[in-house]
């Protein structure tokens, strides 16, 4: 199943950016830079930034361009997605790795901010929990984990279409996860804050790792 899913994303990588552009319309750029701004890294001389499930690299490349002195890292399990990321402008500013979000190949406490954008809902429940634990492990004490996910629509018909879409592309527990609010994050992090993108289509959960 995992090999089949990886193969799917390897193939999807050829049209992924166009798909996102059509789906997001004018919101894609605004949403991306909203996420960058919420990281609040202006006071860091050389921040260490990790983007998990980075896809074709749009988010981590936006971070790298704003913070050119940073150590910026993008990780994804799809070779095809990473290949597309490495073809983009400014890709030389980012270190791309192929790997598992639930078993990160990094030491403890080394990143100032860890990002995961519109991806956790696709993981199975156990893998999602493990991925969150791994994000907490690799972020520095006092550092931030930023999780951006789709907002569940309130209009009944749009909500129905949303559930159909999630059943096709998400994991078995995707709807439950997206509807659980902040609870999955409060179980791991000492401080959790919620905000919303300007379009209202996505929510951003900001998780702070306790300073020991």
Q: CATH architecture, please?
A: 3-Layer(aba) Sandwich
**Secondary structural class:** alpha/beta
- Uncertain ranges: none
Q: So what's the CATH class?
A: Alpha Beta
Question: Termini distance?
Answer: 40 Å
* Proportion of helical residues: 40-55%
Output the CATH homologous superfamily: Vaccinia Virus protein VP39
Biggest sheet architecture: 7 strands, mixed
**Alpha-carbon Rg, integer:** 16 Å
**Alpha plus pi helix count:** 9
The average pLDDT is: 88
Write the element-wise H/E pattern from the N-terminal end onward: HHHEHEHEEHEHHHEE
Binned strand content: 15-25%
Structure description:
With 212 residues, the chain is α/β, with parallel strands linked by helices. The chain has one domain (2-208): Rossmann fold (3-Layer(aba) Sandwich). 41% of the residues lie in helices and 23% in strands. It contains nine helices and seven strands; from the N terminus they run αααβαβαββαβαααββ. Strands 3-2-1-4-5-7-6 form a seven-stranded mixed β-sheet. Strand 4 (111-117), helix 6 (125-138) and strand 5 form a beta-alpha-beta unit. The longest helix has 14 residues, at 125-138. The chain is globular, with a radius of gyration of 16 Å. The mean pLDDT is 88.
